[in-house]
Amino acid sequence: MEIQVAVAKVGKYATRESGDTLEMIERPRGGLSVVLVDGQQSGRGAKAISNLVARKAVSLLGEGVRDGAAARAAHDYLFTQHEGKVQACLNIVSIDLVSKTLLFTRNSPLPIFVVRPDGVQELAAPSTPVGLYRHTRPVITELPLEDHTTAVVYTDGLASAGIRRGQPFPLRAAVERLHSEGLAVAQKWADRLLAEALERDEQRPVDDISILVVAVLPRQAPDDARRLLVRMPL
Amino acid sequence: MEIQVAVAKVGKYATRESGDTLEMIERPRGGLSVVLVDGQQSGRGAKAISNLVARKAVSLLGEGVRDGAAARAAHDYLFTQHEGKVQACLNIVSIDLVSKTLLFTRNSPLPIFVVRPDGVQELAAPSTPVGLYRHTRPVITELPLEDHTTAVVYTDGLASAGIRRGQPFPLRAAVERLHSEGLAVAQKWADRLLAEALERDEQRPVDDISILVVAVLPRQAPDDARRLLVRMPL
């Protein structure tokens, strides 16, 4: 089989940089962890917060610290640094080759969509952002690493796209539609969702939008190579 | 303009994992750093070494430590941990949006190829791997961030492809050829070089091969989104 990770990320209209941070790190015992953090508000301040939380989490994950402990530590660090005054939404998605699972660690009220041949599931157990309350803990979900699984994780700019016109993005319906179209590769999922969001926001995003798609697919690559591609317009 | 980063990475034939590690991190004041490390020998042991060096470097770069200091620290860490007994080749490529430069930090005897419209240049000043000698320091090259610049960084599995048949890969000639073909996007550079290396190794790589291509191109993206794509065959 083959794992694909795709990310599409835009900043709020007319801000210099996105307040969201995405980082990725190899798990020392095999696999990959991707961390997506949405810092409170937008612009420079939000970026500094999301960067701090994401860095703490990836640095621990890279040392082999388990995901739940990395999320707790990232929370404790933010809570200590900013005395409980700023918050961030934190999601960690890990492909763990030791346990052969997909591991979702959520500190965010937004659900994660998991799409499998039998339908769309929401990981939506109540979960709070990191940074505000002393004993915040993540909600963890572990799924078997099986073919034909697609997970969609995002920051709230996606969910709130269209809000300027009073029509927030019906995300679940969009995910159902892409699923029924039989969309396979991760990049198309991310690009389609981003394009729809930008259209709803008339190409001027009301908030930072980041979309992270992790797909487990039947093997498509012609060789055994791992590949990475980044595109960054300046 | 647009920055593209492409990586293609395979392990030595019949080993469970590559001894090379590639990690990437956002620079806190804007831009991106990519770290490529080739650990001594191959397999598990090499991976543990390259992972340790790469993690130390990205974690410092993520905190805003300058590239040369991050390379020195990664060296010092490996030298201390392994008492000067193991070595690793370390390359850092940074896209620095503050200084508007491409920054190359080499601790490796292998040259880096820089391709611009006027031809192919080699960053080949003598440079030693990290880990062995107390005062190892990197060789640093800073180039302006200009359109139509492509940099090719790699581990020695690429240079030694074909060595089983006594015909090591004439890399400079391959880079000249791709340049004369007018190859633009980063991914094609990485894929073409990998395909040629695998052919020389009869699809059974003699050593871990990693190829990192950083390209500065005229804007091609239809929108302002940053995009990331990872493909990992299992």
Strand content of chain A: 25-35%
Q: List unreliable stretches of 5+ residues of chain A.
A: none
Our measurement of the CA-to-CA distance between the termini of chain A, rounded to an integer number of angstroms, reads 35 Å
Largest sheet of chain A: 5 strands, antiparallel
Percent of residues in helices of chain A comes to 25-40%
**Which overall shape of chain A is indicated by the principal axes computed on the Cα atoms?**
globular
Q: List how many beta strands of chain A DSSP finds.
A: 11
Number of helical stretches of at least 4 residues of chain A: 5
Q: Quick one: which chains have the greatest interface?
A: A-B, 53 and 52 residues
Mean pLDDT of chain A: 96
Spatially, the strands of the biggest sheet of chain A line up as 1-10-9-6-7
Multimerization state: homodimer
Please, could you describe this protein's structure?
2 copies of one chain form a homodimer. Chain A has 234 residues and is an alpha+beta fold. The first copy, chain A, is 27% helix and 34% strand. Chain A has 5 helices and 11 strands; from the N terminus they run βββααββββββαααββ. In chain A, the strands form 2 sheets. Chain A has a 5-stranded antiparallel sheet. The first copy, chain A, has a 5-stranded antiparallel sheet with strand order 2-3-4-5-8, with helices on one face. In chain A, α1 runs antiparallel to α2. The interface between A and B is large, with 53 and 52 residues.
